[in-house]
Write a structure and sequence with these properties.
single chain, alpha+beta, Alpha-Beta Plaits, 9-stranded antiparallel β-sheet, 8 helices, about 20% helix, about 35% strand, globular
Amino acid sequence: MSRLRISVTAKLAVLSPLHVGSGEGRHVDAVDLAASRNGRQNIQPDVAAIQRDANGQPWIPGSTLKGLLRRLADQPQTDRRAWTTRLLGCPPDDAGKTARMGALLVYGATLAQPGDATGMPYSDVNPPPVQGPAQSGMLGRGVYVAARTAIDSSLGIAANGKLFFQEVVAPGAQFTLRLLLDLHAPVAEHAAARQQLLTLLSRMTGAEGVQIGAGQADGQGRIRLLAATLQLQEGRLDTKGFIALKPSKPSLAAPSIGTGSHRRWVLNLNCPGPFAVLDGSYPVRRAEGQPQLQAQRQTKGSLPIIPGASLMGTLRSHAAWIASLDAHRAKQDTRQDDQGKVYRDEVRTPLTAVERLFGVAGYRALLGLASFDVTAAKPWSVHSVRLDRFSGGPIDNALFETSCFTGVAARAVIELAARPMSAAALTSAEKLAEELMKQLGAQGLRLGHGTNRGFGWFDVTVTQEAVRAAF
């Protein structure tokens, strides 16, 4: 037996809003102020808090990163029994087999560079220094608050009373990843172990990244390992009992496309008319003479924010409608899409095709948003007048302005996961997904604010993309 030790450091870039939750809620000054401005003085909304280190900076725990690595190691084209257990260990099985500790040790990832959140909803106007802790009631640099609501599947619009908030790390942030491979094995196995580790890391370098944290099916939490920052130090136990680590040049394989997916679609969305997802924090910081309503926008201001949850919630509503029509044509009872259902097991909690595709508590969605990027838009302002609902006429001195966007173009990649299940369940889910994509191409979809007034009407072009694995 010999001992191999490899130290790994690399940067992880945040590609989409990241929420690795602490399981706790907290109050944020900007959110409380916005609530009081909206006439809810006695309500202080809880904000789901992110994990932070001892300095109050965003932090990704080692357990979260190890879970990601295990998921990447368990992809279908991998002989998981050959090396997953060796690297990552295993818990005790039902037969009472002793748990095994893996050779790969995973440190928590610390913040190396914050993203720019200065123009994002509920972000701090004067955030504390990068190295300083976030002050009580503040968020700190590179963090903002995302607000979202559930979609009423029967109406296709935001459900009443379902708004909730969560802290998120802004895209553009970078975290420092640290790993240590400490392997006790014959020398003949060292090269294979090194290659297995590099294979895992290669799967994190794709342009779309990999997903961690909350909201993965909605496109949140996409991170990417920056291959150019990867550094390895390698050493073996010598005859004197020391391990001297020396720099080693890594060689990463090409990343896979759609690894672990069964089907994959690309949606090109185009909205020539006005579009806005309103910024709930804007009224608090609005100055005299500025528009009364403003769309959420990326920090530089030239592109809108379209939350992935908005897209996936709308798709779920479409799928529920399609499923109900299919049941009606077949003269079957329509099974309501129950988003509040908690999955226990297949016998006690049978799932509909919609629930399989989009998930319920305890069951991970089959259909997920692999990436969602806005590629073009033009800022625009539109003036409107409030109407008297009794008379139908305009209200005096009730002219208001909405700062929004036109010519919005976006690209979304939707994946149907490859997961063990019965052939009938997979066929039912796949059939519904195919029908959903067909309907999107024929009818388009509506997103965001004011869809009943012509805002957010998107044409959709759907193409199917090949799934290619490089390993």
